[in-house]
Amino acid sequence: MPKISKFDDGRSISEHILERFLLGIRKLESGCWVCDTAYPLSNGYCEIKFDRKSKGLFRKRVHIISHEHFVGPVPDGIKVCHKCDNRPCCNHNHLFLGTQAENLKDMAAKDRSAFGERSGQAKLTMKDVLSIYSLYAGGMIQREIGEMYGITQTAVGLIVNGKRWRRLYEKQHGK
Fold this sequence. Notes:
This protein has a three-stranded antiparallel β-sheet with strand order 3-4-5. Strands 1-2 form a two-stranded antiparallel sheet. It has a two-stranded antiparallel ribbon with strand order 6-7. Helix 5 crosses helix 6. Helices cover 38% and strands 17% of the residues. By secondary structure, it is α+β, with helices and mostly antiparallel strands. Strand 4 (46-52) and strand 5 form a beta hairpin. The chain is built from seven helices and seven strands. It folds into two domains: 13-109, Homing Intron 3 (I-Ppo) Encoded Endonuclease, Chain A (Alpha-Beta Complex), CATH 3.90.75.20; 116-173.
């Protein structure tokens, strides 16, 4: 007689994943919840893995499980985002639904995105850009400024018109 897996008990995979999730919740002083029965991923999120040998490996991120269980389903094309910016957190009160664009906007509003000198492609520092604003306002032409900083006249034009380094531009120019 073949051995029956403890997971082949008539319950769905979703029910097993939810059970493993609920058994692992630990509440932190910060208000965040972490799931001790979840596996941490290299990007900081955590997921529940469930292997039903005959059907394969199933996995789901804990913040999505939490939202679906405590709040409701997640529509197609919508992300479950963190208010607390703590990727392992699965407290449904710390989560909200949003599009990818809304999630990126939230991240930018909290200064968590790679912009300015934190960008891997930045050639200038914030101090350089502030100096460029000042030089341009003082009457220096864009080509000369570009030569000083090793960038093109076009790049200088984009900076002084707020198309590049937009957040700094908006802070400096009150926009």
